[in-house]
Amino acid sequence: MAFERKNHTQSMVTEAAQQAFERLARDLRVPKSAVLQTILEAVPTADLVALVRGDLALHTAKIVALEPEESLAIRSEIESSLALLGARIAEASRLGAQRAVAEHLKSLFNAEGA
User: Fold this and answer.
1) Which of 35, 67, 89, 104 is the most buried (most CB within 10 A)?
2) Could you tell me the pTM of the whole model?
3) Per-block average pLDDT, block size 10, for the chain (114 residues)?
4) Alpha carbons 26 and 20: distance in angstroms, whole number
5) Is 10 helix (H, G, I), strand (E, B) or coil?
6) Strand runs (DSSP E) across the chain, as ranges?
7) Contact 76, 66 (CB under 8 A)
């Protein structure tokens, strides 16, 4: 299949768009003339369209469905981890409360002695 090189131009209407384009070229480490080609070769067109239309977000939480066995395994791991940490959390809380009371009593005794 023969490839015919085509040049396309597009004007940047805003300064923000121009700066974003320049950051893309810099971050991708490609000449400005290769930005579009680099993106098109790396990202499926359907994903680009979904991203631009707002149907796809890269920085939002995603909910995934798990098979029942996987879900049980994950739940079991979480319960096990919490059970192991529970005693440590209770002990840390108790020690923290003891230290707080001791510091408070110490400050009371120092205030009375002054």
Assistant:
1) 35
2) 0.46
3) 73 89 93 90 90 81 80 88 80 83 82 64
4) 10
5) coil
6) none
7) no
